[in-house]
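Subject: MOSC domain-containing protein

B.,
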Amino acid sequence: MPYVAKILIYPIKSLDGVEVKTTKVLSSGAIQYDREFAIVDELNKFVNGKRHAKVHLLRSQYNLEDRTFLLKVSETNCQQVFHLDYERQALEDWLSKFFGFAVKLQQNPVMGFPDDTVSPGPTIISTATLTEVASWFAGISVDEMRRRIRANIEIDGVPAFWEDRLFGEQGDISFRVGNVHLLGINPCQRCVVPTRDSLTGEVYKNFQKVFVTKRQQTLPSWVASSRFNHFFRLSVNTRLSPSSVEKNFKIGDEVEILEK
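Prediction pasted inline below.
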């Protein structure tokens, strides 16, 4: 039986994640605390890995209960702890100094700041998929691929690309994680971020070309291939099912497809 092996939350969009044992799904479908905050510039545009490779040099650690956040620059002693609610201005000043231009921290505790605002549920991938995709690239470990893909729920006990069963040719696929009912929507479109080293921002030569070629070659025969207008897609976007009553799930919860 497929089961939840990891749950990863990214409290500040584009920064490091934190692994948790249990989590709550909000009424919006988003995981509580995931992408709750986003760094924006004076034009209210995201300061993220898509637009600013320098963000890869930031390391962060979170205490979700205390709402504290340790922020530091890779390979330096420049670090500081902030309270996310009470020291917002100090945090913004620190980040502005690091980036070299003024930034603010926006907050959305209801839905966060997902890339897909229509399907803001947890993104799903399997451990076997991460292992397979990492094998396509010399020098990239499974942990490194995990940091590049940044999915929320990792499923084990299944073969590579099992999560592609969670979307169909027509309509959504209903499935459960523990007792939480979700809808699988579509394979997640990747951006420039996975092409870079997650810790340094260094570009991996021909990453996207290799990825697209291998993804097409390894696409299982049962996959709804019409959902791939291109093959730079990995993991599955979801929504909370309107019928779901339960809103919490945890490590070890079984994952079951309810509607095929």
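The radius of gyration is 18 Å.

T.
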